[in-house]
Amino acid sequence: MAVPKRFDRRMPDRDDTRINERIRVSEVRLIGPDGEQIGVLKISDALDYAQERDLDLVEVAPDAVPPVCRVLDYSKYKYEQAQKLKAARKHQQTIVIREIKFRPKIAQHDYDTKVGHVTRFLRHKDKVKITIMFRGREMAHPDRGRALLERIAEQLHELAVVEQTPLQDGRNMTMMIAPSKGLMAELANEERIAKNGDSAAPIEEVAPEAVAEPESVVEADPSDTDDSAVPAESEAPEEPAAPDSD
């Protein structure tokens, strides 16, 4: 639920940029609206220059000697800067590290369940820290933990790359894996299809239909024709004789 402004006690974002009369120096190096160098002017002359063009005088390099100011539309400038910051944050990826813990001796059902969790985290583009926890006499057999980690890495080799090989850390042995390039490409394609619809799906190649070659026809030599093979022409039946008029 949004908090009404008059009850919202949070401090508003401060804008420390000095503009116009807030610039308290005797002279500035002035840059014009199109980026051209105007030169070093008294602050009063620089303000007049900006006001004549219905623009603002904005201090862009306060630590320079003399400070650098630019003539521009400050409202438009703030909006453009906010859009750039928003775009930059959009392209930033937050790296999340998940952790899944195994025991050296683990039942197959529990192993499959935990590997399923690892797979799900990888498909969420998260890194996964896999920890083997040793207890008591298990500390005497670190090779079992290493073998288990290698088994997991081999099973997930199509989805993950090993960023940190098995490392003994006290009673634990850890390995870090991250989504592979192949998985990231697959997920990017799935996101593109979900965004653009089925039309964005890759088009499968359709194999051309096989066309049967025409059978070769061998013409028979008339001289080799067997008369017995030629069907006899059927004779027309004789017409009945007309009755005698006598």
Automatic annotation (TrEMBL):
User: Residue ranges of the Translation initiation factor 3 N-terminal domain?
Assistant: 19-88
Task: From the UniProt record, give one GO term of the biological process aspect.
Answer: ribosome disassembly
Q: What Gene Ontology terms describe where this protein resides (cellular component)?
A: cytosol; membrane
The protein's matches in PROSITE patterns, at most eight in alphabetical order, are given as: IF3
Pfam families noted in UniProt: IF3_C, IF3_N
InterPro entries linked:
T_IF-3_C_sf, T_IF-3_N_sf, Translation_initiation_fac3_CS, Translation_initiation_fac_3, Translation_initiation_fac_3_C, Translation_initiation_fac_3_N
Q: Which UniProt keywords apply?
A: Initiation factor, Protein biosynthesis
Gene Ontology molecular-function annotations: ribosome binding; translation initiation factor activity
Q: Which residues form the Translation initiation factor 3 C-terminal domain?
A: 95-179
* Region Disordered, annotated ranges: 195-246
Matching entries from NCBIfam families are given as:
infC (TIGR00168)
Identify its protein family: Belongs to the IF-3 family.
Q: Which HAMAP family match?
A: IF_3
* Name by which UniProt lists this protein: Unannotated protein
